[in-house]
Description:
Two copies of one chain form a homodimer. The first copy, chain A, is mainly alpha-helical. Chain A is built from ten helices and no strands.
Amino acid sequence: xxxxxxxxxxxxERADAxxxxxxxxxxxxxxxxxxxxxxxxxxxxxxxxxxxxxxxxRRFGDRASLxxxxxxxxxxxxxxxxxxxxxxxGPGAPPAERLIAxxxxxxxxxxxxxxxxxxSELTSHGAYLRSSPYAVHRxxxxxxxAQARPDADADYLTDILxxxxxxxxxxxxxxxxxxxxxxxxxxxxxxxxxxTRA
Amino acid sequence: xxxxxxxxxxxxERADAxxxxxxxxxxxxxxxxxxxxxxxxxxxxxxxxxxxxxxxxRRFGDRASLxxxxxxxxxxxxxxxxxxxxxxxGPGAPPAERLIAxxxxxxxxxxxxxxxxxxSELTSHGAYLRSSPYAVHRxxxxxxxAQARPDADADYLTDILxxxxxxxxxxxxxxxxxxxxxxxxxxxxxxxxxxTRA
DNA sequence: AGGTCATACCGGACCACGGTCCGCTTGTGC
DNA sequence: GCACAAGCGGACCGTGGTCCGGTATGACCT
Lengths: 198, 198
């Protein structure tokens, strides 16, 4: 027997709207992969999805949000791992270890989805720092920081630990500077170790 | 008796070009201050300077670079202080102290010119990390890091120390999060201390 | 001085893109 | 069926950035 996940407060979304959302996401995913994120205009996505441009913007608001929406599935998996997954990413390990595992997971994610993540940071006029995925990451890190260093300024430390995981920074380190993924993980591990020592 | 500063290798810049550059910079400075950076289009700057839009773009390349050019004088002062100014910002103090002084100077600069610095970061598609002011800051920090921690991965540590001084990060901490300038300086001081300990 | 020439420079028409708007259409609950 | 809001789509706007035909400038020569 199926129970509704939540008794929807709003009148339920129309069927064609749902279908269109999916078609737009599929189109975006396909075009991003085919010709690169930077070479894919919103018009092209609308055309590929067989939908008017207005529809794209109504469903997703702007380009940055559409990019994030394309990664939503992957983001959900990550969040699930943070909350209920096995240690050290999930609960059960000491905070410093969890932070290191979080950094490694984020770096893997950046390696895999760099183009799209970068796009969402660059086109959001800085608002990605207030996007919902970022907020979740922030809460997670802040909680671990507060556990590891109850004395310190948790807000500031959280920023310090999240900044090197931004897509723009990653792209620069990885591709302009030529650092390897392992170097970045090692560096981040050191950083966490130093910042969480009493 | 006047000596030419440098025996210009290129044929010297035309007088009208020089005059136009200055008029554009003045116009941009004025409009940025009057109506805010975000509300000032390149067309408006060209009009205010009494110049065609093409001229603006030829002289400055793009919006991000124009923003940086507006701050050039201030940047020059800062760089001069780093190289020849009094300790601890200039030479003579231990590296850790110089790094802290550098952070404080950068934070003051952000407090004063936030709008313009933010604009140059946001509209450069991430290329501000390869701008000449950033390159100078990077070399400076990297040198100090290498002195303080000859054993460590200087490249990575340099990124870590520069990331919290970006305009986007600063804007978020200062205005969304409501941290005070002193909190940020204190936080940065702690960061440097922890990262430079042997 | 005055004239001539190559060319750096100018300016505004032009383009593509992100994003908005609003009149028409279509699905849905009654 | 009916009414009505949710949804649609494409014309439209302002913007950053490019391009190229025409022009003014400064070097050189006489």
